[in-house]
């Protein structure tokens, strides 16, 4: 499984290197050449995104104890794609010095003013792109944090539900024990009083035995009730 992931990583590295080189050429081109280069970069960026999807599928199949390292590498590759896309957007509106001179010419103050105006607009677009990129990164990180929080809450909920089930089972068992002991005590008392001889023939030894057995039953019942209250 990891060998497939590493194979995708190598393809991704080669592809991103080619994309970087072509993005650097875009500002130096004009007309159809520039259009063709832009189309090639767009196609390669799409291929890179598809590679990332394949890599994500591979990471999901990796055992949980080893998945953290691969997940970290995936985040790095996604950031790299995001940077390439931002560079590509800037390259499509940027011009090299040679192309800019060819477009504007050098015919005095008018050309200088146009050049300065174009440079100013380009810088504004670059600043806007950087702000958008930073905002996108913050949104991605916020989404990841929210996902982790939801997973933790789901796990806590399952633990609470299991604890409640155990408490219900314990309460039911204690109630059953309480009813059994109460019945035993009742039958014992009834039997003791049924077996009593006449008052004139009761001896002290027999009376002591009845009291001891009753005390044992009462003590057991009290212990069960105490445990039930604590639960």
Provide the fold topology.
Elements: H1 2-25, H2 31-61, H3 64-93, H4 97-104, H5 109-194, H6 204-230
Helix pairs in contact: 1-2, 1-3, 2-3, 3-5, 5-6
What does this molecule look like?
With 231 residues, the protein is mainly α. Helix content is 89%, strand content 0%. It has helices at 2-25, 31-61, 64-93, 97-104, 109-194, 204-230. The mean pLDDT is 77.
- State the end-to-end CA separation: 49 Å
Helix content: over 70%
Q: Report the principal-axis shape.
A: rod-shaped
Q: What string, H for helix and E for strand, traces the elements in order?
A: HHHHHH
Strand content: under 5%
Number of strands: 0
Structural class: mainly alpha
Give the mean pLDDT.
77
Number of helical segments? 6
Question: Which features characterize this protein?
Answer:
rod-shaped; 6 helices; 231 residues; 89% helix; mainly alpha
Please provide a brief summary of the model.
Helices cover 89% and strands 0% of the residues. It is mainly alpha-helical. It is rod-shaped.
């Amino acid at each position: 499984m990891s060998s497939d992931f590493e194979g995708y990583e190598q393809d991704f590295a080669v592809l991103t290197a080619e994309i970087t080189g072509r993005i650097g050429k875009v500002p130096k081109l004009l007309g159809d050449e520039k259009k063709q280069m832009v189309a090639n970069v767009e196609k390669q960026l799409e291929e890179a995104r598809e590679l990332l999807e394949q890599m994500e599928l591979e990471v999901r199949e990796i055992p949980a104890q080893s998945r953290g390292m691969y997940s970290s590498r995936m985040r790095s590759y996604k950031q790299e794609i995001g940077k390439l896309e931002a560079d590509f957007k800037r390259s499509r509106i940027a011009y090299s010095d040679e192309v800019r001179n060819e477009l504007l010419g050098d015919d005095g103050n008018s050309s200088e003013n146009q050049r300065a105006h174009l440079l100013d607009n380009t810088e504004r677009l670059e600043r806007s792109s950087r702000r958008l990129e930073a905002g996108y990164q913050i949104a991605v990180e916020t989404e990841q944090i929210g996902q982790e929080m939801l997973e933790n809450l789901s796990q806590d909920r399952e633990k609470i539900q299991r604890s409640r089930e155990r408490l219900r089972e314990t309460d039911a068992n204690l109630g059953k024990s309480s009813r059994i002991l109460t019945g035993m005590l009742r039958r014992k008392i009834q039997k003791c009083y049924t077996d009593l001889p006449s008052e004139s023939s009761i001896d002290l030894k027999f009376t002591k035995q009845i009291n001891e057995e009753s005390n044992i039953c009462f003590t057991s019942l009290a212990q069960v009730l105490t445990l039930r209250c604590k639960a």
